Known about the structure:
Elements lengths: L1 H6 L14 H29 L5 H9 L7 H17 L9 H28 L24 H31 L34 H38 L2
Amino acid sequence: MVCSVFTIQHPDGKEYTIPVSPTMHCVINLTSQYFLIYLLLFIFISVEDLTSWDLRKARDVVETTKATVQFAPMLCVLFIATRMRALQITENRGAPQGYAQQGMYLASWALVIQFLMCIVLGACTGKPYKTDSLDGSSSAKGQDDAMPYKWLAITVTVIRYLALVLLYAGIIAVIFSVFTINPSNANGTGQLIPPAVPLGPLAGPPPSLDDVPGVKGGMEATGSTIGAGADTVDGATGTVADGTTGAVSKVTGF
């Protein structure tokens, strides 16, 4: 599905293909974070089971990031539903309000920041940083005193809580847009935050797979290969179906 995003084109040519929407940028980013963490856990656990290597520290660090991406599936559903609502009331021509798109960016960036803070703290201290889970089973309270670099733990904690504020601000902006959107304002305008200031890159789309050097070209090549194979199978299926239909017609006389 991700490959199709980079290879899908307008029937009249590439020059008529519209750019990827902000909603899709955010969904790809959140999906990448979510599956990257579980992929790493799968790799670490499999290596430990099949070899004598002890990857417990690396696995514990990645485990702590699971709490940060628990919001990802819910955010993806909210973002997609908002975009579908904008298309629904504009005959598939509109887009969520500008502040709603910036809210999506803020929420996505907030998860990226929290994800990175957990990795940085674990890599620098060698100890996993337990985050506050959604169900309350784990808490980050009292860990700063036990960390070998207390100043680093305090800095990371402050950044994480700031990111949490950005996360909820983005969610509130998107939900508010759902109840206020109408055909006249569903055009992608009405930004509350200037593109460059005061949040800088946070006002733009979060990093995605196509930002990694070589990944976009690889995705396009993979998608083209898969598409060519699917077209070949469809052509062969159609040929077999036509031949079978002709044979049945000759036998039955119809």
